[in-house]
Amino acid sequence: MKDEKTKIKEEKIIELTTEFCNEKLNREYEELCVKLIEKMGRKHEIPFKRGKLKFGRVL
Question: Is the pLDDT reported for residue 45 higher than 90?
Fold first, then answer.
């Protein structure tokens, strides 16, 4: 079960990813990214539990 901080971080990552996909990609990529983020959030060792929420805009 995820703690509250992890849920908030996951939601923020989904929000940032959705914003990026809407600007630079399409709906299919957005759906895929959200699916992958949610899948990572179900793992025992959650990859985004640590670290800062900064997205570099490459495209």
Answer: no
What is the reported pLDDT for 26?
92
Most distant pair of Cα atoms in the chain: their distance: 35
**CA-CA distances (angstroms) from residue 51 to 6, 24, 29, 47?**
11, 25, 24, 9
Placement of tokens 């990859």 in the chain: 47
pTM: 0.72
Residue 48: what residue type?
F
Neighbour-count burial for 13-49, b at 16+ CB within 10 Å, e otherwise:
bbeebbebbeeeeeeeebeebeeebeeebeeeeeeee
The owner of tokens 């703690």 is 3
Mean pLDDT score of the chain? 82
